[in-house]
Amino acid sequence: MFGLSELAVILVVVIVALAVKKGPELVRSAGKSARILKAEKKAAEEGTVAPRVIPGETVDPARAPEK
Questions:
Q1: What is the tens place of the pLDDT at every residue in 7-65?
Q2: CA-to-CA distance for 2 and 25, rounded, in angstroms?
Q3: Max Cα distance, the chain (Å)
């Protein structure tokens, strides 16, 4: 049977493997969220309506909402 130290090593290897696979996606999502929060904060301080497109965010014209 496995001991506690062997299970800990296996757990660390699994976590590292998942982090390598999902890491870039999580960082990209966190950056996008930070930009949105920053724009919302700025708009709230200025008393204006937040822009629909955040600077640095790309919008796919095929998926853009129609006016």
A1: 999 999 999 988 888 888 888 999 999 998 888 888 878 776 655 666 666 666 666 55
A2: 33
A3: 64
> Burial level of 29, CB count in 10 A (0-12/13-18/19+)?
exposed
| Model confidence at 66: pLDDT above 70 | no
Q: Two tokens at 24?
A: 């870039």
CA dihedral 20, 21, 26, 31 (to 10 degrees): 70
What is each CA distance from 20 to 7, 13, 24, in whole angstroms?
A: 20, 11, 8
User: Strand, coil or helix: what is 21?
Assistant: helix
The predicted pLDDT at position 8 comes to: 94
